[in-house]
């Protein structure tokens, strides 16, 4: 698809200069937040947050295991998962032209949950016939693959019901239907398998604890590819914000544009969900925060939303590990509380006289 034609731009105004300053400040702030988040993630272990403890661990005999194999991939994984969710959320909100759109709207979350439940139910049905190696494979590889395939299957079914990407409203309704249907099938399967129920609950609450170096390679590669693709479609997204009629008058092929947006946000969501489960609110809140603090065109918005999502999930992951150490909260619970609190505050701001 050809990029959108250039829109007429007037001369620079004081408002443009102020917007550029705000975006620069946010960019610097996000870089600092990510660096601090990475340091905090490496310094948070079973005993909670401790910079002195990090120094001891780096110089101890178990540095390779504690830092190199457990904390480092988990911390980097939280950053990349958050970035993918923030990017996907920005695409979803651009596609639906709604700042409260969520990347899970198109059935990816329900599909990923169903994929996980199917694998767990199959493993439970195998019972004692499964070897320890098979169980380990299911826990570390099979669930990730099942969640990824299930998320893509959910989105594919949404596109089938919506008859492609011709109409945004039809896509949204089809996504709701697919989510309800797949959720019902998932609940039915878990009724017959307590093991599947426990696994599904862990998946639905979200966790970055199982992200390894192989998962990081997939997450990093997917993020770089999606950022490159989004850069090409940024101008088309800007035109879409003017309304579908105006975008079509500029020469955009709207069905093809919607299809590409659906594929990109679905791939980003599927990668994130497969590695960390369902992490609530990050994909919704990150682009919303960027729009409120430093709005701009989609070339900036998507990149900043990825950075904001990474910073949010890094912070939530540190809180989930340090709050009740040595025990650990599911990171999805932390993001749910923080995201829900933000939306309640936003609602009070909008409804206050």
Write up this protein:
By secondary structure, the chain is mainly alpha-helical. It has one domain: ABC transporter involved in vitamin B12 uptake, BtuC (Orthogonal Bundle). The chain contains 13 helices and two strands. Helix 3 crosses helix 12 and helix 12 crosses helix 13. The termini are far apart. The relative contact order is 0.18.
> What is the distance, rounded to the nearest whole angstrom, between the alpha carbons of the first and last residues?
46 Å
Can you write the helix and strand succession as a string? Answer: HEEHHHHHHHHHHHH
From the helix content, strand content and strand pairing, which structural class follows?
mainly alpha
Shape: globular
Helix fraction, binned, reads over 70%
Describe the strand arrangement of the main beta sheet, using strand numbers: 1-2
Number of helices: 13
What's the arrangement of secondary structure elements?
Elements lengths: L13 H29 L1 E2 L2 E2 L1 H8 L4 H34 L11 H19 L5 H30 L6 H24 L2 H12 L7 H28 L3 H6 L4 H23 L5 H12 L4 H25 L8 H21 L2
Antiparallel strand pairs: 1-2
Helix pairs in contact: 1-3, 1-12, 3-8, 3-10, 3-11, 3-12, 4-5, 4-6, 4-7, 5-6, 5-10, 6-7, 8-10, 8-12, 11-12, 12-13
Q: What descriptors fit this protein?
A:
single chain; 353 residues; mainly alpha; two-stranded antiparallel sheet; 2 strands; 77% helix; 1% strand
